Amino acid sequence: MFGRFLRNIIVLSGFWAVGSTVVHAEDRFIKNGFWDINVYPYLSDADNDGRVTMNAAANFSGGLSYFGFINFGKQQSAGATRNAYYTEQNLRWRFARDLPLELAVQLNFRTGVDNDRYRLGLRWRASDTEFLTDAFKAIHLTYAVSIYALQLDHEAGRAWQIEHSFRFAFPYLSDRLYLSGFVDHNFGQVLPDSFPSDPIVAEAQFGYRLYDKLFAISEFRINEYRRSNVSSLGVGLQYKINW
Length: 243
Known about the structure:
Layout: H1 2-23, E1 30-43, E2 52-60, E3 64-77, E4 80-93, E5 101-110, E6 117-124, H2 133-138, E7 141-152, E8 160-169, E9 177-187, E10 200-211, E11 214-223, E12 231-242
Antiparallel strand pairs: 1-2, 1-12, 2-3, 3-4, 4-5, 5-6, 6-7, 7-8, 8-9, 9-10, 10-11, 11-12
């Protein structure tokens, strides 16, 4: 009971902190960030996928940054369908000004009990690396990779994860168009034989700005933790606020 209360407080505190950034954007401690909401009226194949996603991020002075998201969808349990959520809350610290490296802490919560995860690792902002910057700029790509060598959870085995995140821009086509996403590669989990030994969860979102802060989005998803309908497609709208 207390654990569920605590994790809800942590999730809400993260979004509250970013929301405060909108109000106090003139504060020197807070540099910039964004908040968005994504709604997917159409889902192919996997009806229980997330239909609403909220993302939030903020960059602070002192090399600190925050990123978090929460997905809302449906979950099958004991023959019944119920509302479900999944969230990741990330706090990062760039501990050396001259290095594109960050200490990364991730809190991972979802519907249910005894399934929280806590990760600690190192994040490399590859596109901010001095000798690679020009190459990444030439293809309009922002890319980072996180290695979470330590994972604490209720599962057997010693699990760990490599997380890739990316964003492409296409100025030669349109400044309204982008492609962004992530690939989570999971290792060391003890899973039934019907699952891949090192499952992948990935999303790639094409977005096109329709007007001001409104985007049309199409999102391709892969979730190898599912026994069927491993891949799916979501189509919808995004409303995004930058500051």
